[in-house]
Amino acid sequence: QSACEKQLTKGVCPKRRCLVPKPCPNLRVDHREYMEILKKVAALPGVKRVFVRSGIRYDYLVADPDDSFFRYLVANNVSGQLKVAPEHCSANVLRMMGKPNIDTFEKFIQLFEKENKKSGQNQYAVPYLMSSHPGSTLKDAVDLAVYLKKHKIFPKQVQDFYPTPGTVSTCMFYTGLDPYTMKDVYVPRTTEEKAMQRALLQFFVPDNKELCIKALKKVGRYDLIGYGKNCLVTPMHSKRYGEEKWTKNKGNQRKSVKRK
What we know:
Blueprint: H1 5-10, H2 32-42, H3 58-62, H4 68-76, E1 81-87, H5 91-97, H6 102-119, E2 124-131, H7 138-150, E3 159-160, H8 168-175, H9 191-201, H10 209-218, E4 244-248, E5 254-258
Parallel strand pairs: 1-2, 2-3
Antiparallel strand pairs: 4-5
């Protein structure tokens, strides 16, 4: 369906977005059709369960005044984990991404946990995160690492930005300009900085320790190197590290093992 009544006759608004930075007052938020599709699929012969792994636009979901779909989704369509995409926490980076401020994600998490409690389930929302997106400075990457530590989020998978055809982000990457304002946009380009930004998102992995320390020193965040509860890493000479010990298992994957 169309995003609003105006879209039917006037098309897409050229200078504004439906959900960012805040939902447009003309936006028509309605999940009923999606919920009916899920119910019809679940009713097909031979279908035991229908799971939604990802693809939920959480800001659109939060904007829905009717919580029927949210309740149905949590109770019936989550197989333990639901992946959503806050991508970052920096307001500037999120603006470049066309994403809402991080408080919208936090509101979604609160509602998700509330619905889980109501339905008596123990399910998790897993965030997609991205490093080195146009607009993301090394300081922004450090701020994201601090945010993850504060909220006890330890992502096993993160994504480094790569340009894909036809996107505004790719336009920024190649031109160094915000096409909406024509102002300069900082773009991480060196292999070293991209590696540091990515490592900061997994600051708790021992293999990333040296890169994290280098990044923290570069932005002057020596306060995050040490043994305090708010520190991201311990000094290089230390044998102590983080809250988890990471070991390799079969298939060259990694798993976390709590320290005794």
